[in-house]
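Narrative summary of target 7.
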Amino acid sequence: MIVPELAPIEYRTFPTAIGELTVAGDSRAVRFVHFERNGGPRASWVRAHGGVVRDAQSQLEEYLEGARRAFDVPLVAEGTPFQRSVWAELRRIPYGETLAYGEIARRIGHPPAARAVGAANGANPIPLIIPCHRAVGADGSMTGFGGGVAVKRKLLALESGQRSLTA
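Modeled conformation, tokenized:
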């Protein structure tokens, strides 16, 4: 069996008010957003000069400046069916709002699976665009986040209109 060659993954790394971000994808869709603390581009990735990766960078910069509330770049988030259902529900959480892990579990039809929702949240390959920072503990507490809890607090403050990240 001949396996078709996959399109190369292209990336852009850029500084932001929450640290350096790397956004990566192929010619059709964004596949990854990495925080500096979680590692940069993989050795097999090639530097992007335009296309969907550049569009994602622009939209991320606008979001972090407080000028964008929703993203419209195409995404491909590879994961299990359960993970993908969690990520789809995360995208339904409105800008400026949060939702408890248990409520996300209930909404996707798995009420006792709050911890599994948390694990799926942690496996999100496209944070910020898939807004995993909007998931919180049942008591509203800030729990783990790939960019760190301090960054999660900043993002939620930005979305609640308390302050700009670039001000």
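The first helix runs from residue 51 to 64.
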